[in-house]
Predict the 3D structure of the following.
Amino acid sequence: MPKYSIKTVATLTGVNPTTIRAWERRYQFIVPSRTESGHRLYSDQDVEKIKWVVDKQKEGLSVSQAIQQLHQAPEPEPTTTKLYDEELKDGLLHALLSFDERTAHDLINRAFNTFSFEKVTKDVIGPLLMEIGSRWENGSITIAHEHFATAFLRARLSTLSLQMPMNPFLPRITCVCAPGEMHEIGLLFVTLYLRQHGYDVIFLGAGFPKEDLSKALHDIDTSCLIFACTLTEHIPNLLDAMDYIQNEHPDLKIGAGGYAVSLERGRFNGSFLGDTPEEWTKWLSTI
């Protein structure tokens, strides 16, 4: 899967970006994909091909000779460089759970300097949010850890979201936790997913009374409201809030997701978003 920026490929192979582009045009032995903004993205196989050509040059072959041999040779196998994103994610997780904000900033900056924006949000930040949420649910980290990590990632993502292209033809979605719910990790993950897919998202964060939410919705031009709920103790208030908001805003599409909602999905019928991004996509198609 294409995931490396040309700057990263240059770092991994020792070949400068200008030469990489020239080899693409002249020999066409690598054909990078493009992001929506037009930036090149290279796969692990692309990186290995370039490395192979470099090694053959060191043996005395010209670039054209090396590429000719490359076409006759088996496809180079990717090396462990594909695990670098996992190393960054694990390092970032350790920093956040150690309350080491400076290291966390350094690591997330390194991720964006190494990989494309899409790669970092999909393969570093997304899995990180899921890991932190899972650890909190199974009791291996405290509420303090979860709140610190959430505050850090929310601050970084609020800035990053400005770089995400928005599709003006998609509906605006408002995201908020269930009344009384303070755990924002799940909501943050859903918000990131929505913004990655071009939605304009209003992030309201931790839960608050349904009456205040209803008043706010009168000032928000939104087509859809998504609740997130982690603790089952908040399910009754969530269901009550959904009924109240629906009566006050009959044209509003309302959905709910999160650990607690998943456990009691039978009480939500068509409002349950699902447990996976694929199910979220299917639900979003009904807006």
Q: What stands out?
A: Strands lie at 33-34, 40-41, 173-177, 201-205, 224-228, 253-257. The chain has 13 helices and six strands. The chain has a mean pLDDT of 86.
